[in-house]
Amino acid sequence: MSEVKSYRKPYNPPVKKATWWLENPFYVFYMVREATAVLALFAVLEIVLGIFSLALCEYSQAATLTGISPYIWYLQDFLGNPVVMGLNVVILVSQLFHAVTWFALMPKAVRVFMNKNSTELLPEWVTKAALYAGLIGATVVILAVAYLTK
Amino acid sequence: MEKYQADVAIVGAGGTGLRAAIAVAQADPKLRVALISKVYPMRSHTVAAEGGAAGVVRDDDSYQKHFEDTVAGGDWLCEQDVVERFVRQAPEELYQLEHWGCPWSRKPDGNVNVRRFGGMKVPRTWFAADKSGFHMLHTLYQTSVKFPSIQRFDEHFVLDLLVEDGECRGVVCYDLQNGVFRQINAKAVFLATGGAGRCYLFNTNGGIVTGDGMALAYRHGVPLRDMEFVQYHPTGLLGCGLLMTEGCRGEGGVLYNKDGYRYLQDYGLGPETPVGQPKNKYMELGPRDRLSQAFWNESKKGRTIKYPLGEAVHLDLTHLGEKYLHERLPLICELAQTYSGVDPVKQPVPVRPVVHYTMGGIETDGNTQTRMPGLYAGGECASVGIHGANRLGSNSLVETIVFGKIGGDAMAERAHQIKDHDSAELDRQAEAAQARALSLFDVKGTESLSKIRHEMGQTMEEGVGIYREEESMQKTIDTLKELQKRVKNVGLTDRGRVFNTEWMNLIELGYTLDVAQCMVHSAINRKESRGSHQRLDGPNGAYRQRDDENFLKHSLAFKVAGADEPEIKYSDVKITTFQPAKRVYGAEAEAAEAARKAKEAK
Amino acid sequence: MEATQKTMKVTVLRYRPEQDKEPWEQTFDVPYHKDTSVLEALFYIKDNFEPSLSFRWSCRMAVCGSCGMMVNGVPHLACKTFLRDYEGKSMKIEPLANFPIERDLVVDLSDLIEKIERIKPYIIPDAKNANMPLNKNFKQTPMQMEAYLQFAQCINCGCCYAACPQYKLNPKFIGPAALTLLYRYNVDNRDAGAKLRAPFLNSEEGAWSCTFVGYCSEVCPKHVDPSSAIQLGKKMSATDYVFNMIKPEH
């Protein structure tokens, strides 16, 4: 079809590349959930730092405190720092927030029927319960290991 | 003007138009199909059909039964040879849709399920929950995407047919988005523009159902047949008029008046059937015209329920239970809740009759061919002859696909027989149509488009409603004549070319007014009562009865050059095997059938 | 009818391509009662104040998909949104976000339509079933139907595209409705065309462009839950990928 004259002049509303997510509370909520990843990154760096500090320890002089002074610094001066402690509380809260909101979405990615002859889908609460059970289970295991190896 | 040469031009992309386009594309992929619609295909009003589509599949059913139900349901005003063909072709078209992906509701064994419907002796209505039209339309639209030979002209509004030497040669349309006119030449033109429910104020129809194709054909001398037969659906939602499908009653819903009495037993549909045990052709499963008439009589007796929005009766579904209702009638639950604030699981739904369907339409033969060579019509805009004086629920959805297919095949054949045609005369007609449309911008009148539209709807309700009388019909005739004059005096405020809906609505209103005139003129001349056309007048009430001697005929509304009103003529009804008899339902029907069998046995 | 007719300030975004450089706002006082929908408010405006106001509509019953628009910044069907729910507030009606504005409340939907049609939205049967006679149906148990039925409820209104920030930032994204339709056909037991649709699902613009914001599902007027279909599509795409690594031939 040959294009002849058209009276069209569509208007394209400008896209705010940086601030689009401020337009809608739902987007803000989403961005907060995504932003918790930054805090998770901090937690990861924390653990990496802990591992490095262990690596710097001199184990040949096993019993001396000076030998493991990097790790003691990590435990007392770094983790004990009120700012870091506060930050860790924030991280814990943010990761729980991430978990809760993520679990709320997960049933969408699960579509399983109750059984072979049923048109009823597995209820959402089952998926969520499994996820929470996983979270609680993992937490208990980690805490138990921490307690038993102290 | 931009010009496009097609083999087949199809106006309207609802169920019928899409099915026809696919049929042409399948018949010969080399044929160029122009599919023109004033909306995107999935907006077409087929989308709103709920209940289902009739087709014989059960072992206890037969083509003969479907044929008899249809002809008797239509009060013997059906073309019986066309009905015979229709019932035979229905199942294969329904299976075809199944193969294309339509989610017909199933039995546990994986085969297609059917439900009961009004006026049908055996359950034979294929359904996709209560969104049958929606699923059919989307299936057809999505399937049509497969065929590259179908060139769609979405949001193109047709202004006129191109006719040379008495043959239809194409259409002129307006591209709403680009604001330009297009001339589409074609060897065959198929009108599939749907009904004209918007003639009336209170209707189940979408805003686009304005009778465009009917008016286009009528203006070119093709008659509109049986236009007095306008179906009132007995169960429209009070207030807005949205459709509460007949499937509600097919699944077991019952109707109560203000005394909690199942009043249908007083109108030849009884005896009362137990709640939860619907019986075909009894009570709530009687035909639509009878049920709407019963409401009217209940209203006269003061036995309807008064609501702030008007009178209603109660459609009670509560005994069906939440699980069943949500599975079988999810849309009904959603609509009642959203638009009426009523949850059908817990409360009865207030309903009343509402204009739903135009049985009549562009006169065609059984091949969808009109009396103008090159012009075809199918679906609600056509009168192919299967609905007679009253359409049975679930016959129209299947009509769209059966006659879409038949029309598509017929047009493909014509396209192979004749050559492309273009001429200065066609160009001249196209330019003239453009000039006529643009001249509306020059009118400096003071009339209001919305007022005229409203008055038309009002006068149609008053004059050609469920029951009709000479005097009120004459008043409607006079009002419409007046409105035809006033509509020429509407001054447009919107002078834009892109998506000028005010301008389009004005042209649509012109179409609708023409169709409305055909309805009321056909009605006033039919001096009898048949199907959905019921009169209260005549000498000693003579017009209250069916009069086969004088009116076992189709009415034909012709446009007369220069006249401002249609001329009504008549044509014969094709009767093959099923002689006219008294139209009976309920126990009376069983008695009549027993008597007939006894007679045959002798 | 009602003695105490309430009114609401309704602001409508106007844009007339032949006159206006950019959109502007026009405010009307619209009377309403408990059943007045946004669509009916627009009728009132068009019939009484501003006949030149353009908007799409048809069925009035939330099934044709014509009247998607933004109401106070949220995508809605005008016919299924009621003034009563905004009582005491004002209302702002704008064309669907993320689409070019053609005129007033009418947007250019051609991109949506093109994407719906691109992903092969039809049954592609396997060779065995390609010529099934027309007196026979495919077997499909109610459970097999349930696998896709929810995703076949889309009315193509465009609300999900207006809700999707990924589509806003990258218009090449195939988007919620089209990907949902793709998934709908892939899981229909009558269909064997998943392989032909895989390039769309797996592509850069396919399911993987979705970051699971989930707002599309929130605004969908028919509860189709497109974000669910897309996550399930991702699973399908990932399985496909792994399968192809193991068995590169197929």
From TrEMBL, chain A:
Source organism superkingdom: Bacteria
Keywords per UniProt: Cell membrane, Membrane, Transmembrane, Transmembrane helix
Alphabetical list of SUPFAM superfamilies matching this protein: Fumarate reductase respiratory complex transmembrane subunits (SSF81343)
TM regions (residue ranges): 35-57, 78-105, 125-148
The protein, known as: Fumarate reductase subunit C
TrEMBL record, chain B:
Tagged with keyword 4Fe-4S: no
EC number(s) reported in the record: 1.3.5.1
Feature: compositional bias, Basic and acidic residues: 526-536
Domain named FAD-dependent oxidoreductase 2 FAD-binding: residues: 7-397
Membrane protein topology class: Peripheral membrane protein
Swiss-Prot/TrEMBL catalytic activity: a quinone + succinate = fumarate + a quinol; a menaquinone + succinate = a menaquinol + fumarate
Broadest EC class assigned to this enzyme: oxidoreductase
Keywords, ordered alphabetically: Cell membrane, Electron transport, FAD, Flavoprotein, Membrane, Nucleotide-binding, Oxidoreductase, Transport
Pfam families: FAD_binding_2 (PF00890), Succ_DH_flav_C (PF02910)
SUPFAM superfamilies given in the database record: FAD/NAD(P)-binding domain, Succinate dehydrogenase/fumarate reductase flavoprotein C-terminal domain, Succinate dehydrogenase/fumarate reductase flavoprotein, catalytic domain
Residues of the Fumarate reductase/succinate dehydrogenase flavoprotein-like C-terminal domain: 453-585
Region feature (Disordered): 526-545
GO molecular function: oxidoreductase activity
Cofactor: FAD
Cellular location(s): Cell inner membrane
InterPro entries: FAD-dep_OxRdtase_2_FAD-bd, FAD/NAD-bd_sf, FRD_SDH_FAD_BS, Fum_R/Succ_DH_flav-like_C_sf, Fum_Rdtase/Succ_DH_flav-like_C, Fum_red_fp, SdhA/FrdA/AprA, Succ_DH/fumarate_Rdtase_cat_sf
PANTHER family referenced in this protein's UniProt entry, alphabetically: FUMARATE REDUCTASE FLAVOPROTEIN SUBUNIT, SUCCINATE DEHYDROGENASE 2 FLAVOPROTEIN SUBUNIT
Family note: Belongs to the FAD-dependent oxidoreductase 2 family. FRD/SDH subfamily.
Self-association state and partner proteins as the record states: Part of an enzyme complex containing four subunits: a flavoprotein (FrdA), an iron-sulfur protein (FrdB), and two hydrophobic anchor proteins (FrdC and FrdD).
Full protein name: Fumarate reductase flavoprotein subunit
Automatic annotation (TrEMBL), chain C:
Pathway: Carbohydrate metabolism; tricarboxylic acid cycle; fumarate from succinate (bacterial route): step 1/1
EC number of this enzyme: 1.3.5.1
Domain 2Fe-2S ferredoxin-type: from-to ranges: 8-99
Domain spans labelled 4Fe-4S ferredoxin-type: 145-174
Reactions catalysed: a menaquinone + succinate = a menaquinol + fumarate
Required cofactor(s): [2Fe-2S] cluster; [3Fe-4S] cluster; [4Fe-4S] cluster
UniProt keywords, alphabetically: 2Fe-2S, 3Fe-4S, 4Fe-4S, Iron, Iron-sulfur, Metal-binding, Oxidoreductase, Tricarboxylic acid cycle
Coiled-coil residues: none
UniProt similarity note: Belongs to the succinate dehydrogenase/fumarate reductase iron-sulfur protein family.
Record-given protein name: Fumarate reductase iron-sulfur subunit
